[in-house]
Write a structure and sequence with these properties.
The structure holds two protein chains of two kinds. By secondary structure, chain A is mostly helical. Chain A has a single domain (about 15-75, about 135-575), classed as Cytochrome C Oxidase, Chain A (Up-down Bundle), CATH 1.20.210.10. In chain A, about 75% of the residues lie in helices and about 0% in strands. The longest helix of chain A is centred in the first third of the chain and has 55 residues, at about 15-70. Chain A is globular. The relative contact order of chain A is 0.10. By secondary structure, chain B is mainly α. The longest helix of chain B is centred in the N-terminal third of the chain and has 30 residues, at about 1-30. Classes of the chains: A mainly alpha, B mainly alpha. Chains A and B meet through helix 1, helix 2, helix 8, helix 9 and helix 10 of A and helix 1, helix 2, helix 3 and helix 4 of B. The complex binds protoporphyrin IX containing FE (2 copies).
């Protein structure tokens, strides 16, 4: 078949002259087509990704603050803010000097800049404590109480980071897989702007105390119209793109992306109506709330994450998915079973037991898609694990894909009544939530972006070391986070179920684990800073260009091959020479 | 009234989502999406990035890793 002959054509002597020429031409055409499609996606995808990265940093900040407040209740956020602002002011002049220096490598520059910042922070801490003797008159204010910072964290994670990261990925994946350049770029950029205005207003609203307290829909009532308009634009774009596709095969990733784009606007709009604008009353409201919160995870974030893995893994290692059949089964069973499972969040709550039972069954059925996806990804990777050392995207995506299986197996068990009796209302749930939203979704999205961004900007990543740092901080961070909360949560649940166990004792047992969580969370947050630095450097054009003289064109693989052989021949020459 | 809206939307959603899923599935059958899995799974590759081509590496990784396995895997079908 054509694909393998190309590679063989470069090495095997028995391909005819004309064949080699035609192949080289086809190769050029394919490379140009792909580059043209990528370049049409560039601005919209990067616009959404820039928003996502910005809010990721704030989400991590609020997560960390929330976490620290659980073991240092008098912790005052203003100290961090002051520290941040003053150390930035103190260290920026130094950083400019360092960045200008001609004889330092980029890694060294980043290292010195970091050092300058930390030194400035340390200096200010010493000055403010012992020299100026500054005290705050009171501890914080209502805006930085647990209730509001947690709401801010979750909203920023769900809408600031998660959704925007997902849309950025979709805007690159869908045109590529449909083989048609992205249309209406300006509408999509406008949608990103509307979205971010909404998020900004929402964060201010929550911190000002206007949050709705409906989990996953915490933004004040003036925010949803922004988000609905924006989602509607993206969905309309999706439908038009689907009708314009040039590729007749709808690849499994496309199924997931189109499914997600179709479900989310509808879900969100309905959820806002029945929870915020015309709220259902009493117990019914909690059912509506969790119908939405569950589906936003399972029919929005999950399909994007799983779908992206189905593209990145085969594409990076250059091997089709192990079983396309299984991948299709996985998609359709997710579509059919996932939306039943929402009530497993309310096990033991005052809703009709049959609703919970139906959801438990739905959760068990989820083993089908999960096992299908897990087996498939594993078998695709088998024999290629070595590539994990060389490909940053693969590392993140495989980490996420493995976690997907783990978190789903864990979730199905959590949906059993006996288990939930212990684990519900404890930190165990929070551990699961981060394993899913972070270990699975966020890690996969990082992997997608490590592949996507250089192909959009035509710019290589500035520093391998920083990528490695990002990976290790995030992966070790989430493992610490998850392990400590799972252990703590389980014992917490057992102790709470025992009426003879003193409640205060249970509380103090948790402390060391909560401190561990803050440590893990701080590592994750630092990893996000590393990612933000890499992203900004890439956008600013620091680092080596990806391609040769032609503006924005990917190397054809024949050129890469030529470079490997140390020559600078054109594809046609390579093809001829290989006869 | 509020309860009526809730039941209407929830039931409406079930009909809407379920109906859409069934229509989508019917479309895929008619359109032949379930027919040639071998080709579908290869639709993400092209002449320039064929099966067997490794397409990602750390920016400073030695070049040879990028394409190390290419020729041996081109013949490897799964
Ligand atoms: C089929 C697989 C899954 C099942 C059966 C499942 C099951 C559950 C259950 C039963 C809970 C409620 C626990 C409690 O409150 O006691 C829960 C919570 C949660 N799950 Fe999953 N889960 C699955 C996959 C995932 C994935 C893939 C993600 C990430 C995208 C995820 C993210 C979450 C989050 C964020 C929560 C907490 C919601 C909240 O309280 O705000 N889950 N899951
Ligand atoms: C992109 C990364 C992150 C994602 C996707 C994420 C996601 C989430 C989610 C879904 C929840 C709701 C959990 C639930 O209701 O059960 C949550 C809560 C929380 N997260 Fe994160 N998070 C992230 C990063 C962090 C970081 C870096 C920290 C720092 C320690 C953190 C600390 C917290 C805390 C303290 C809560 C509140 C838990 C509670 O209510 O007891 N998160 N996060």
């Amino acid at each position: 078949m054509a694909a393998s002959t190309v590679v063989n054509g470069l090495t095997s002597p028995n391909v005819s002259n004309a064949d080699a020429g035609a192949l080289a031409e086809e190769q050029c055409r394919a490379a140009k087509e792909r580059a043209a499609i990528d370049s049409a996606s560039r601005l919209p995808a990067l616009a959404w990704l820039a928003g996502a990265t910005f809010w990721l940093l704030w989400a991590s900040f609020f997560g960390l603050v929330t976490s620290i407040k659980m073991h240092i209740p008098w912790f005052d956020v203003r100290v961090i803010m002051e520290l941040g602002i003053i150390s930035t002011l103190l260290s920026v002049p130094l950083m400019v000097l360092i960045a200008r220096s001609k004889n330092l490598s980029l890694d060294a520059k980043i290292g010195f800049c970091t050092f300058a910042f930390v030194a400035a922070a340390a200096l200010w801490l010493v000055l403010r404590t012992w020299v100026f003797d500054i005290r705050w008159s009171e501890h914080g204010g209502a805006w930085q109480t647990f209730g509001r910072t947690r709401m801010t964290h979750l909203s920023l994670i769900g809408y600031g980071w998660g959704t925007q990261a997902g849309i950025a990925g979709i805007l690159w994946l869908v045109p590529r897989l449909s083989r048609t350049p992205l249309i209406y770029p300006n509408a999509l950029i406008a949608a990103a702007a509307i979205w971010n205005v909404g998020i900004f207003a929402g964060v201010i609203g929550i911190l000002a105390g206007l949050g709705t307290s409906v989990e996953w829909l915490d933004f004040p009532p003036f925010v949803p119209p922004f988000l609905i308009v924006s989602l509607a634009i993206v969905a309309a774009w999706g439908i038009v793109t689907f009708t314009r596709r040039q590729e007749s095969h709808v690849y499994v990733t496309l199924w997931y992306c189109f499914g997600a784009m179709f479900w989310m606007p509808w879900l969100y709009t309905v959820a806002v109506i029945i929870n915020i604008y015309s709220p259902a009353t009493g117990v019914v409201q909690s059912a509506c709330n969790w119908w939405f919160a569950h589906n936003v995870l399972g029919l929005w974030l999950t399909p994007i994450g799983v779908g992206a893995a189905y593209y990145i893994i085969p594409k990076v290692i250059g091997r089709p998915v192990y079983s396309y059949y299984l991948s299709i089964i996985g998609f359709w069973s997710l579509a059919l079973f996932y939306s039943w499972a929402g009530m497993h969040h309310l096990i033991g709550g005052p809703i009709p037991p049959w609703m919970v039972s139906a959801s438990t069954v739905g959760s068990m059925m989820m083993f089908i898609p999960v096992i299908a996806v897990g087996v498939n990804h594993h078998m695709t990777m088998l024999g290629h694990m070595g590539q994990l050392r060389y490909s940053p995207s693969l590392r993140f995506v495989v980490f996420g894909a493995i976690t997907y299986t783990a978190v789903s197996a864990q979730g199905a068990i959590e949906a059993l009544r006996e288990f939930s009796e212990v684990a519900h209302f404890t930190n165990y749930t929070v551990g699961h939530a981060h394993l899913g939203a972070y270990g699975f979704f966020t890690m996969i999205m990082f992997g997608v972006f490590y592949y996507m961004v250089p192909r959009l900007t035509g710019q290589e990543w500035a520093s391998s070391r920083l990528i490695r740092l990002h990976f290790w901080l995030c992966s070790v961070g989430i493992v610490i986070y998850f392990t400590s909360l799972s252990i703590s949560g389980w014992f917490e649940g057992r102790q709470m179920n025992n009426p003879d166990y003193p409640f205060i004792q249970k509380m103090s047992n948790e402390l060391p684990w909560l401190i561990c969580r803050s440590i893990g969370g701080a590592m994750m947050s630092l990893g996000h800073v590393a990612w933000a630095i890499l992203f900004v450097l890439n956008i600013c054009g620091v680092g080596s260009r990806r391609e040769g003289p032609t503006f924005f064109r990917e190397k054809t693989s024949a050129e890469v091959e030529a470079e490997l052989n140390g020559s600078t021949a054109t594809p046609a020459e390579v093809a001829l020479a290989s006869r | 009234m509020a309860d009526f809206i809730v039941y209407a939307t929830v039931l409406g959603s079930i009909v809407f989502f379920g109906g859409a899923a069934i229509l989508a599935m019917a479309w895929s059958f008619r359109n032949g999406q379930f027919e040639n899995f071998h080709k579908s799974s290869r639709s993400i590759f092209d002449a320039d990035e064929p099966v067997g081509r490794v397409t990602d590496r750390f920016p400073d990784a030695p070049r040879s890793h990028g394409t190390k396995n290419s020729s041996s895997e081109a013949s490897h079908r799964s």
